[in-house]
Amino acid sequence: MARRAIISALRGLNKCLIARRSRKLERAYRLLILDSHGSHVSMKFIKYCDQNKILLAVFPPHSTHSLQPLDVVMFSPLAAAYSKQLANYIEKTQGLTSIAKRDFYRLFSAA
Question: What is the pLDDT of residue 70?
Fold first, then answer.
């Protein structure tokens, strides 16, 4: 059941990508990054990807937490910078005030 849902979702994504790309991109391959959970990878799924010029990058088991590109490259430094801004804010207010939306936006944009 999960495999059917994944292939169905991939077909929908593929239709969307095909509708938006140029003729030059029709010859290009796309990269799909996923974990190695058994429900995500099957021969039918691999064949579909191969027929539709989709390259698969499958992370080894139990390693996605440390290998996810966006987490490692972008979100980890952003989280550290936001935590620093938050710590400075708490120190400045001596922890006597709560954080409102306007404070969040100001702290986050500074990060």
Answer: 64
